[in-house]
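ASSEMBLY PREDICTION REQUEST
Request ID: AP-0331
Submitted by: J.K., bench scientist
Number of chains: two
Total residues: 781
Priority: normal
Notes: Please return the full assembly, not individual chains.
Input sequences:
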Amino acid sequence: MSEQTTAATDPLIADYEGKIQRDNRTGFDGYVVPVELLISFVNRLKNERGYDYLSSITSVDYEQDGYFEVVYHLYRILGGESMTLKVRTGRETPQVPSLYHIFPGADLQEREVWDLMGIKFEGHPDLRRVLLWEGFYGHPLQKDWKEPYFEEEIKPFKSRWPEGEPSYAEDKNPFADNVQYPADFDPTKWRESSESRLYSSLQQAGASILESDESDKIIINLGPQHPSTHGVFRMVANIEGERIVGLKPAFGYLHRNHEKIGERNTFIQNIPFTDRLDYICSMSNNLGYVQAVEMLMGLQPPERAEYIRVIMAELTRVINHVFWIGFLLNDLGAFFTPSLYALEERELILDVFEEVSGSRMMCNYMRFGGVVRDISPEVLEKIRILVNDRLPRKLEDFERYLTNSEIIRARCEGIGILTQEEAIAYSASGPVLRASGVPYDIRRAEPYSIYDRFDFNVAYATHGDVYDRYLVRVQEVKESIKILKQAINDIPEGPYLAGKSQYQVRVPAGEAYGRIESPKGELGFYIVSNGKPNPWRYHVRAPSFINLTGLEKMCLGEKVADVVVILGSIDIVLGEVDR
Amino acid sequence: MNGWEIIRGLGVTLGHFFDTYLEDIRWKGKRYRTKEGIEGRRNASVRGAFTIQYPEEKLPVWEEFRYLPFLVYDISAEGEREIRCTACGICSKVCPPQCIWITRKKDPETGRPITKPEVFAIDVDICMNCGFCAEFCPFDAIKMDHEYEIASRSRDGNIYQLEKLLKSKDYYHSIRPNNSSREEKEKLEKEAEKLKKSESTV
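STATUS: Completed
Returned structure:
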């Protein structure tokens, strides 16, 4: 990537006298930092070089070389080059110092790495499993971990062709017999301890936050089966009267280990699976994934394909934000009528998606090097009518009714505040980050696809409350419409796919971190290929998962009724949070 | 003045309510259960109620709409079914959830494999309707269907076998006219080219 030029000359790295090495493997990038130097080096990067935004933490299991690698992606919030750090630790007792005290945004991400890869983070204050339950045996992303119903290491399975004998999955994997645990473990004697750990950590934290006037604190559970939590999501809140003094999110109820599935799949088989991450914005997910793989392949899609992709991605943003506005009203107590009015716009756009891709939500539309099929002039005309007439008109309606509505302002202004510094520290992204006064948009900061050609503004606001998140999203829809108008006018004729679509793509060995500005925030795909038909590592940096890191901060001191609105304002989709 | 906002909000709903009836009058009773009426309600200029009253009325699906694969067969000059599938296995290799099972037919006398499927089964409980099988089939033998009402009382029949998957070329043409005409044309062109080549070599 682009940091190659500064590498040799940076005196900061020279200070470490050769202990910090560049990653020399072909196709790889960044620096390999010894475990003991990580904290000092990251501190200096943050303070002296301005790398203040921790975008992603993930890990790779290099089984054949006998170590785990924790991979950190750092950025500057003012824009500029990225910094990739790698820390290696042995497979026997993997342990790495936690970055929690430098970047609080590492909280959930480090817990995820511990949960799925089994790397301990020394100094993390609350290192519990996050997606799986506490009694789970093993860490599934380790390459030698196998599920109870294990067929084969990689797809395609040999049993399907040429000697296919169909069978029902549940015959091979009968219910109640589909678990695995160590031989000396007795499931009837097992006692759940994670809940008490969760409650006690909450009680300890809660005491130190508010000055209490000797009133009792109670721990209550909001969810997981609660209509206001946008899915199966649980918030464990420590309350004092009506006020929140501590709050921990608990989730993973929809977990299916998307990443392990992705490592079993071939590269192309992952595209329909990305649809199911954030099922409101499947086109954006497709785009993020194919872009990361294209980075590895060095493939450049043709002009028309780039335009089609931008049109689809921006229509997705319109869907997401309009949908969100509807559901904000739902969270505020206006049950379902307003959100159904918002769904009308979504329905019209989904019609377009269905016409071009064949499915309303699970679009599976992008391919490596382009899109699966061209869009017809009729579809373009349909989008033109939507963009020029229908959407601006509807948006104006929304604004007239909502923006100055006394009820909305009373409920949203000053609620759920995340300050500028906090938003950066908690690795918030997307509208949550921009509403806190950080005009950081990847479309502008690190333009991908053809976003550098369009004239648009980065929407932002300065108060960091729920109301500002609403304003930012409304503004963003307007900017999206602006981009769409330009894209529809400029779209050239030509091929929509580079070369021929192939079911087995050759992806050279290497790593790539492709990130896009999805409607919910920074959607990143970290892919490691070893030149085989399946990815060696496939990681999703899910924006709504990481935006939840700041949830507790936003909720402290607020009332219980507002917590619902604050959670809604982050805009989570559980398909993506739980993965 | 919180009361005013509530009235204003209710006004929006009321407006929507009246719009629906005004539209009904404007359409002179033809808004529901007619083709034009359904089209009128999926249009960007729609006002009032938006919903399609399934199952009494159904939205027509787009040509590219995809739901569960099926196998296409041709009718030969003798009136026999000719399955296009050659059991090459590409669909089963590209299938993301691995729900396609194929076995090649064997010649009863010599025991040699012939390029026709003996077993072709799709577990529709697992199929994720991605359409990769249809996209990558080199013989246009497997295509995605439009039939979406497949609820059943038991899961026993949900591994579709060859007989259930087979549908005629005419059916395929009826649901995807543009695609099938294009493929036919390409096929004819290819054959003409082949013929030309063989003539020139002779």
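REVIEWER COMMENTS: The two ends of chain A are 28 Å apart (CA to CA).
SIGN-OFF: pending second reviewer
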